[in-house]
């Protein structure tokens, strides 16, 4: 299925479903962040394959924020593109981190640590900015649609 501009059409989800998905993603990110802030021995727990639980929780925070932004972003627009880029960076954070560290515990040495820190800060900033950007774009789009409906009525 293609849109009028010749691009693949994105199925429109109802607002309630979008808000539900965004809320679940935000709750998952908040719980992961709370677990990381609280600390404890649970973060050192090794998952099958040897990955520490703390690394998985750290990955879940930007993924949750980016997924929420992706759910909220209005269909065609810059906010959707920004949410997609944020999602790609968030998903790529753990594989890139593992490649830079060469171990599952994410222990860095030398210049790789600096590169990892810069990449991690970029991912965190992108994920943190994507959610309010998408929410604001959705709010503006909704208000404009409401104003257009009032003018035609």
TrEMBL record:
The chain crosses the membrane at residues 55-75, 82-101, 113-140. Keywords: Membrane, Transmembrane, Transmembrane helix. This is Uncharacterized protein. It comes from Coralloluteibacterium stylophorae.
């Amino acid at each position: 299925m293609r849109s009028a501009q010749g691009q693949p059409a994105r199925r429109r989800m109802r607002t309630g479903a979008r808000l539900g998905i965004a809320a679940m993603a935000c709750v998952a990110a908040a719980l992961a962040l709370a677990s990381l802030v609280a600390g404890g021995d649970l973060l050192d727990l090794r998952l099958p394959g040897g990955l520490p639980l703390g690394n998985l929780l750290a990955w879940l925070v930007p993924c949750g924020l980016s997924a929420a932004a992706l759910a909220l972003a209005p269909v065609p627009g810059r906010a959707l593109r920004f949410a997609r880029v944020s999602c790609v960076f968030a998903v790529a954070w753990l594989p890139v981190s593992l490649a830079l560290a060469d171990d599952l515990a994410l222990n860095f040495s030398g210049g790789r640590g600096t590169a990892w820190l810069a990449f991690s800060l970029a991912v965190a900033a992108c994920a943190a900015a994507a959610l309010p950007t998408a929410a604001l774009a959705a709010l503006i789009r909704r208000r404009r649609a409401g104003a257009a409906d009032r003018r035609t009525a």
